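Q: What structure does this chain adopt?
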Amino acid sequence: MNYDLEKKSTSIVNFPLPGGNKQLEHLLEQKYANGKTVLIIGPASASIVKKLINNYPELYLISDSYDSLINIRMNLKEINSVIIKMMDYTHTDFKNNYFDLIYSQGSVSIPERKNILKEMKRILADNGFLSIGEIVSLKEPVAGFVKDIWEQTGLEPHSLQSINQFYTSKGFKIVSEKDLSITLKDYYEKIMYSLSKTGKNEKDENKKIFTRMKHESHAYLKLGGDKYIGFKSLILRKSN
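A:
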């Protein structure tokens, strides 16, 4: 396969995001996908940033990892108007009701999700929008090897059936939803392709994350993980 990677050299931030461009497309399908300020939580590809900045002239991107932050800066070095900062997702420095849109793709399916969502709601404007993409479990009970992967990666996914209720219980109204699980095959194939093109020195420097991503991709593509691992996009409005 001949994938069009954003850079010739592979780095952590250049791995694809679950959902690919489909979460962004889901957002842009909505007539209200315009505003002044947008916050991206976690990594984002240059293509996502470029499209969002056309709709939101003031764009912030935050990461809670120093290594990830450096890679994000390198990946987006040609987009000077983006403000990139390192912050704890549960305690940001932003003012109340500041953002018209918060966008997160595959970054909050973790045990701290409740506190992250509480902070999102604080800094999101009244009637502002949240575009969220989360890893979900498609089938219960989840197979043991998938549980092991999620424990090793620090993920705590909701089920496909329960995730809506979680967000509505936290003061959000569901405007639109899409099951993007079909995109994960391409996602994991791209990861395996990226890994195959990565040099030994870089693999040694990032051994932990490269080993994890290889194991996760193999489990999805070869061991039947596709029966259990899904991805869902939600467009939510903050309720008053």
